[in-house]
Design a protein that fits this description.
- The complex is a heterodimer of chains A (about 170) and B (about 110).
- Chain A is α+β, with helices and mostly antiparallel strands.
- Chain A has a domain of about 110 residues: SoxY domain (Immunoglobulin-like), CATH 2.60.40.
- Helices cover about 20% and strands about 35% of the residues of chain A.
- In chain A, strands 1, 3, 5, 6, 8 and 9 form a 6-stranded mixed sheet that branches.
- The longest helix of chain A has 21 residues.
- The termini of chain B are far apart.
- Chain B has one domain: Immunoglobulins (Immunoglobulin-like), CATH 2.60.40.10.
- Chain B is elongated and about 60 Å long.
- The chains are: A alpha+beta (about 170), B mainly beta (about 110).
- Chains A and B meet through strand 6 and strand 7 of A and strand 2, strand 4 and strand 5 of B.
């Protein structure tokens, strides 16, 4: 895929029903394995991916404390199948305002199953005028990806995608 | 020819005051994770850009925390409101302490 071409939007919503079912199963197995309570501190919404491990939990606690993360106002666009885990295109957009008194001050990209899950954090200012960030990341294996926007007032908005990859881009 | 840290900023050809423009930054860097081995089975040590600052004139308008999870020869693009003419500067640092710079001029179209 050429980087200069816009990333095609996927029919993500069509798949939500299937993913919801898959998540329900994952959630049950997570509880059955007896994960420590700390891992379950941040409670995902009904169709949000569960926090998979202590590393991701620590990142979320360090950056967001116990504030609720709501779905919406953020769109994460990635190919559902990333053929090469070394180069996976990412597009993050938000319709949240970028005004002097209210703006998006941070955008966090977390790849649940990467060795270093917080792949990047973008610290922004109202001078940007609009949140639309494009980059390329590495993925170790199939994983949920979290794009979380933090506003200047401390609100957290997110979008999640599961991206499959077979070629390990992290080593 | 490869030149580690070389930073290129791509701006639209025509910019008018108040436009929200696309700024694309392309750098040359291996972004080694430290998990891969070379042909002789030696570990390739971690070496990556971990801090990127974007200055518009003297003001810092964005700062990116990066890890080795950003792809080799990093690319990042974002929007910027072009309010004044001035220099856009990208200053990045890598995990070995090297600093790299690149810049481009934001100039408004006259016609």
């Amino acid at each position: 895929m050429s980087l200069n071409e816009p990333i095609e939007r996927r029919s993500f919503l069509q798949a939500v029903g299937v993913l919801g079912a898959a998540l329900a199963v994952e959630g049950v197995s997570g509880a059955a394995r007896g994960l420590p309570a700390a891992i379950r501190t941040i409670r995902p919404g009904p169709d949000d991916p569960p926090v998979p491990n202590e590393l991701v939990q620590k990142i979320m606690t360090d950056r967001f404390q116990t504030r609720p993360i709501q779905r919406g106002h953020v769109t994460l666009d990635m190919p559902p199948m990333a053929e090469d885990g070394r180069y996976v295109p990412v597009l993050i957009e938000s319709d949240l305002p970028m005004a002097a008194d209210q703006y998006v001050k941070g955008v966090y990209l977390i790849v649940d199953h990467n060795p270093d899950p917080l792949v990047t954090a973008f610290h922004l200012t109202p001078a940007l005028g609009q949140v639309q960030i494009q980059t390329r990341i590495k993925m170790k294996r199939t994983s949920w990806i979290r794009a979380i926007a933090e506003t200047s007032t401390g609100e957290l908005w997110a979008d999640y995608l599961k991206v499959e990859t077979s070629l390990n881009g992290c080593g | 020819m490869r030149e580690t840290g070389k930073t290129r900023i791509v701006l639209p050809e025509r910019i008018q005051r108040g436009d929200v423009i696309r700024v694309q930054i392309v750098m040359q860097h291996p972004m080694d994770t430290g998990f891969f081995r070379d042909a002789n089975a030696n570990i390739v040590p971690a070496w990556f850009i971990n801090d990127v600052r974007v200055l518009y004139g003297d003001a810092e308008v964005a700062r990116f925390e990066w890890t080795s999870g950003i792809s080799k020869d990093p690319m990042v693009a974002f929007q910027l409101r072009a309010e004044t003419e001035g220099t856009l500067t990208v200053v990045s640092k890598d995990s070995r302490g090297s600093e790299f710079r690149g810049s481009a001029e934001i100039k408004f179209a006259t016609t």
